[in-house]
What we know:
mainly alpha, 0% strand
Amino acid sequence: MATTTTPATPSSRPTASRCLTLMGMAIMAVGFFIPCIPDFEAHGPSDWRSISERVLGIIRGPMEHVLQARYGPTAHFVTTGAAEYFVCQMKAALVGGLFIASPWVLYQIWQFIAPGLYDHEKKYVTVFVWAGAFFFCAGAAFAYFFVFPPMYSFFVNQQPVDVQMLPSLEENFSFTLKLLVAFGIVFETPVVIFILSIAGIIDPSTLGKYRRYVVVVAVVIGAILTPSPDVYSQCLMAVPLLALYEFGVLVSRMAVKMNGTPLSRKDDGRSRSSHATTT
């Protein structure tokens, strides 16, 4: 007598009771952020100015040091609008608050998406979130300490002797923040390679095959993100890019070695084996 078989599904697949509707997910998201309201009411109004002043001081530090080295201790930024300084304070407070609260925010994001993931996917999401946060901060720190000083020095030294630079606070804040984000994203290269290797989209041999093209792309990106024409400043961006790519190749080899086969193929193999056993 013929028996009807159905393809087996992984035991870790979320059941119907765990699948949330759009409204349920929205309510859950709101519930995750409700606990922060009392803390904001208690500390936000009194602390946001001190946080914003510290963040503003950090962001304008590289440019301010170069200005004072060129024009003396009286060199300073200027504001060109009535609300410019206040807007910069608000932006700085937001950036500083997100940075300080990033562990809690990442934990809440993890709690929000975890119910919809397979068991074998959850551990990789954890690696992606925390490693991504680390490399993003590392990229921003690298830009702040090693790229900004020579870059701003080049900009300031291009001014004639009889012309004094009076940079706008808002323009400097926006420009610096964009570069910090750009370097942070670039430093995510090993994390992206790891996730793509786990998913089976790329492998170490493919990465090695395109190494020569990566060298050209790294030099071009270094020339774009570091406007100064000297080789030293361009290498400050190109060399870390190449180092991150090579580190990503090692990470890809480790990922393939740890898992044997990519997740998609692994799941297909489990389904085929279960189907054959049932038959």
